[in-house]
Structure formats: structure tokens, C-alpha cells
Amino acid sequence: MTVLRASRVGVVHVALAVFAIALIARAAVVQLWHGKEWAETARREHLAPMPIMASRGTIVDATGAPLVESRELVRLGIAPRDVRDRRGLVHALASAGVPESWVSRATDRRRVWVEIPTRLLPEDAAPAIAMRGVREEPVSDRIGFGMGGLVSGLEVTLDTILRGDTGRVTVWRDGFGRRFESPAAPRSVIRGGNTVALTINHWLQDICERALADAVTRMQATGGDIVVLDPHDGAVLAMASVRTGQTNPAVTSLTEPFEPGSTLKPFIGAALLGLGRVGPTDVVDTHAGSITINGRTITDTHHAPAMTLRDVIRWSSNVGIVQFASRLSAREEFEALRDVGFGTPTGLPYPAEAGGTLREPARWSRQSAASLAIGYEIAITPLQLVLAYAAIANGGELLEPALVREIRSPDGAVWYRHQRRVVRRVMTRETAQQLRDALIETVEQGTGVQADLSTFAVAGKTGTARRVEGHGRYGTHAYTASFVGLFPARDPQYVILVKIDDPAGVYFGGSTAAPVSKVILKAAIAARDAALDRATLTARDYVPGAQLASTAARDSGDIPIAVASTKGGDVGDDPPEQAHPVTIALAHGARDSVTGSRADSAVERTVPDVRGLSLRAATRALHLAGFRVQLVDGRPGETSPVAGALARPGTVVRLGRVE
Amino acid sequence: MVALGLVGFVLVAAGVIWRRGYGAAHAAEIRELDRRRAQLADEQAALERRVRELSSRTRLGPIVENRLGMRVPDDSQVVVLPAPATYDSAAR
């Protein structure tokens, strides 16, 4: 019995030993012979590579405020046959905003796989993602802060800079196919897109957009453009466009050339001065405002017998500039316009920038020289015109425009920063100064008075040009009204172009575009940060009491200007201020109105009694009366001149306040 | 000896598994926090855009002008204060 039991135990031991040996042998085969293959199989099943999209770079304005950002959204893929909680999925998808038709498809068990095209916010999609049978795919979306046309163009042009490098991460998978990231898993470097800082100032952009929208609505125009440029470094500070019927128009300041009309005259003047064909005291016979050249009659609205070049610019005399321009050869006139950048794209990083049209002299007609002198037979973009005026503002240098101020990598390192680049010198400093003086007179006493400010000197030029309509001919009542201003006049920080397309009623640049420029400048001066160096403004341009009589009165109320158009021929132009009666509505005790020349606006009025009023109310009352206010130490409500005294509008009234 | 060896093996194996589980849990938490951060950043961007829209001149301008009687001041009504002296210049 004992022997039998011992032999049974021995058999079991042997069997166990054999089993153990077999197990060890198998383990050895698996580990030693096939170890690498099995390890590779396990790695394939447990780990999965997953691409990670780099976040696209942000576009910010000059102050750092975002204009376009990326946001992460998800797209869902669903395997209907794997879904356990069908009713819950229907509810989750509907709550996330998935259209009903796609919810039905996603829960249709006859389908193997359904990809829902709707992009969802991750927090909205989270309940659905947590369910079995639902997979998420991250997608990136761009969220804009306005300026759609400009930003869309930049997204295309700067795509390689904004895009960044796609990375890859290895994730773990469990038996259910769920994915887990591991800090230890291999991961390639993900480099996000660069941040692009534009030269645009969003405060100023906002001011321009509102001013343009208001102007287009009020004037029943078909559209308009505004460009503001820093003439010292070529930075575009604001760029607004409106086209009626379009909610998000393209950047027409870059893409739509137009015939500029009289705003071109200063550049003919620059050529004449630069080549020494006209001296400061040279006078040309302006034939009382009408001349016939090669069978075409050119007229002025300011009928003078003779003018200097300065007067020609101030009064925007067509006859005068055509007469002066005849001292230039066709080649010289062409080169003068070509050199300031007309006919060539400026090189701004925008995909569809237009170069405009400036024909070679060989293709000119007998009328071309005269037409070009008054801004016809040439098409330029608003940006080209602003850049050309920037040369006048900065002492004669044509600058390369800039829309990108800086490019920063995701770690904050700056690898591009805009630096001033001079394309060429297009006029001497002396010529630029002479033109600036002429443009200052244009605003102070000429066709651009409605752009004038009370405190700061502004230089500028008005333009009114007939527009070509759909049939390829000039429209009977279709005009482009424009104004280009330099602010402040002495060391300009802004070059501002306001262009109004086809305004109804009054269509002259001096009456339509110039006041819009003034609105923008006033708002920019009052704004928190509109790219203005106020310290420089106060140091150089504050002109106490200068020109206030006219401007303060003008600003105290609307000035309806009765325009009796005397236009004839095929050239529209600016109305000289003296040619029209001006009706001034007095703001204080507005019962009287004074009709006559602008000098009449300086009628003396009574300083109001503001004793007993709060400082704010007292200041407001004095402003309403047309006076300027200076706060001084003294008894509250006490004024100098005293209440009841007569003073001209715009006079500084010192108002006492307690320190 | 065998029993001790088995106990040691079990302890080591349990430690490895716990460590991996701990890492995986933290990785999941990191991923969740990353996702939450991205969501909050998106929400912030959306809210900033909304604030920008609501505070734009185009929207606020007519309201403050018509309802509150405010207006953009004339340039002569803007008082530009001189920049404060720097510490050095003030000290001198």
C-alpha cells in the first residue's frame, strides 16, 4: 500500500515537474526566442500615436488686444452599434447643438460609423464623449474681433507664420480602446503658431469705423474708405471700409483704385518746385476760372484772374494747375507721379493688393497731361495716396507701408520687428515744407476749412472727382469726395484719408470728407490711446487763441452750407469756401443767425453767469456759449472776463475753482 | 524561502502596478485640466469679443449721445496734462 502510494505521489511529482519544465520552456521560447515580436505586438496594442494640432497663432493689434484667436472645438465620430445608452446619446447630442437629422443618423444601428460635421464646444460635447461608442476629434476654429476682410487676407498671406508645427503624442489604450496620456510616453515637440502684432490701433480703428458708418448713412453714399498712417514709419494705424449692402467688405483701401481728383495736385506742385519750374512768387493766369485746352474746357469754382502755386493748391484751381503742369514734359509729369508710388503695389502683405493705373506717356492722348494734373486718367488706391502724402509729411521720403509691427514666437521671443524703410526720396525737405505750408493754408482759409480744429493746426487737401459708372462712362451725378489731412500740421503723427463714394446732395470733398476727418481727429484726441503722442502735441502745436473765432463758432452748431454748384465740363472739384454763403446757427440763445462770410462768425456774445453751478455744469455752459475754458485757482463760478461781458466766440474764459 | 520570494514578488508587482496606475491617473488629470484650461481660454476669448462688441463706439456711441446727452469733446476741451517729472529730475 505504501509503495503504491509512493509511486502515485512520484507520478504526480513527475507530472508537475514536466508541466513546470514545459511552462519554463514555453516561457523561455516566448521570452528569449519570440520576445521582441511579442513586445512589439503588446506595444502596438497598448500604445497608439495621436497627432496633436499646434494652436494657430494669434493676431493682435498694436496695443496687444486680440483681433483673431484660435479656439479648440471637437468633432464627434459615432459607432451606432457600440452605443449602449441610445436615449442618453440622443439627449446629449441634441443638447450639444447637433442638428436633429444628424442625431438620427448617429443612432441608426444600420450604420457602422457616423461622423458628425458640426463643430462643438468641448464642454457642450463632454456628456456625449463620455459615452461608449463615441469618439472625439479635436479641431481648431478662429474667433475674430472685427476687421474681417483685412484679417482674412492676412491669414492667407501669413499662413506659414501663424500655422505652427503639428506634434505627435503616444497614448495608452486599455482593453476598451480608451486612451490615456502618459507623462512618460514619447512625445514630439509641438510648436504653436507665432503671434502677429499688427500696426493697427483698435481704438483708432473703432473711431474710424463709426465715423465712416455714420457718414455713409448720413450722406446716403454707396460706400467709403478711411486710412490712417503714421508718416514717420509707414505704419498703417487704421483702415476702415464700408460698402452699402455688404456686411463684411474686402479691404477696398488696398484693392479698389479710384480717380483721386484734386488730391493729386500737390504732387504736380512738388515736381514743379523740385525741378525749379515754379518759384514761390510765380503767378499763372487763371483766366477767371475757365480755359479751353485742346478743345476741352476746364473750369474752376474759385474765379480768380491769377494765382501763385500756393493759391492754386489752396483753392484747388484746375485752371491754375493745368497751366503750371504745362511747364513739365509728359515724361517729367509721368515720373513725378510714378516716383511717389502711383501705379505700383505698395507691397503690403495682403493677397489682392491693386497697383492702380498710371499709363506710360506713349499711351497718352492730347488731353492726358491736363487730366493727370487734376487727378484723372489715373487710378490709385487709398493706401498709395496716403503714402504719397506721408512723404510730404515726413520731409520727402516715400516709405514702405507696414501692417505687421512684430512677430513673436510662442515663447515670447521677437523674431521680426518692423523698422522704417525708405523706398526713395521723392522731394527735398524744402519742397515738402513748402507743400505743407500750402496744405495748412488750404485748411485754414481754402477748400478744407471744415477739417480745421480749434486748438491744433491741420494741413490737408480736398478732392472731388467724377466717378465712372457701370457703363464705363462718367456718371452724371456720381462723385468721389475725398480729403487727405496731416495732423498735426507741423510734425504730423497722422496722415488721414477720408473717401466717400457717391454722396447724395452735397458732394464736394471739402463739405463731405473733410468734416469726417475732423470728427475722427477730435475723437482721437479725446480717446484713451489712439496712437497719438500727446506730449509732442502740446509742446509744438497748441496755439492758444489762434483761429478760434471761426472754428469755435463753426463747432458750436451745425453749419448748413448752401451749395450752388456751378460745375460744368467734365471735371468736378472743390467749392471754395468764399463762393458760398454760410449760415451759422448760434448755439447760445440760438435765436439769431448770421448769414454772410465766415468772418461774421466772430460776432461777440455775452459771457454767461455760471455762479452757483457745479464746475462741470459751468464748464458746459461756457462751452455751449462758444467759449473755451481754462480752470484757474479762485472762487468757484467766478469768470474772467466777468459774466455779462462781451467776448468773441473761442475766447478763453478763466473759470475759478477751489484748489 | 519560496514563500518569502513569492511575497516579495507580489509586493514588487503590486508596487509597479500601483505606480503605473498612479501615473495614469495623474496623466488623465493633467489632460482634463489642460482641456479645462483650453475651454476657459476659449470662453475668455468669446467673452472678450462680446465685451469689445458691446463697448464699441458703433454700439455705445448712439446710446450715450441720445440717451445720456454725452458727446465727443472738442479738441479745445481736452486738457493734456504734462508728463510727471521723473524721480531723478524731481530729486534734482
Overview of this protein structure:
The complex is a heterodimer of chains A (about 650) and B (about 90). Chain A is built from 20 helices and 30 strands. Chain A is of the alpha+beta class and about 650 residues long. Chain A has four domains: about 1-50; about 50-195, Penicillin-binding protein 2a (Domain 2) (Alpha-Beta Complex); about 200-580, DD-peptidase/beta-lactamase superfamily (Beta-lactamase, 3-Layer(aba) Sandwich), CATH 3.40.710.10; about 580-655, Trypsin Inhibitor V, Chain A. In chain A, the strands form ten sheets. In chain A, strands 2, 3, 4, 5, 8, 18 and 19 form a seven-stranded mixed beta sheet that branches. In chain A, helix 3 runs antiparallel to helix 5. The termini of chain B are far apart. Residues about 85-90 of chain B have low confidence and may be disordered. Chain B has a domain at about 25-60. Chain B is mostly helical and about 90 residues long.
Secondary structure tally: strands of chain B: 0
- Shape estimate of chain A: elongated
Level of helix content of chain A? Answer: 25-40%
Low-confidence stretches of chain A: 544-602
Largest sheet of chain A: 7 strands, mixed
Mean pLDDT of chain B: 81
Tally of alpha and pi helices of chain A: 20
Q: Mean pLDDT of chain A, rounded to whole units?
A: 83
Tally of discrete structural domains of chain A: 4
Task: List segments of chain B where confidence is low: pLDDT < 50 over at least 5 consecutive residues.
Answer: 87-92
Q: Beta-strand percentage of chain A?
A: 15-25%
- Radius of gyration of chain A from CA coordinates: 37 Å
CATH topology of the largest domain in chain A: Beta-lactamase
Oligomer: heterodimer
Class inferred from helices and paired strands of chain A = alpha+beta
Chain pair with largest interface = A-B, 48 and 33 residues
Rg from Cα of chain B: 32 Å
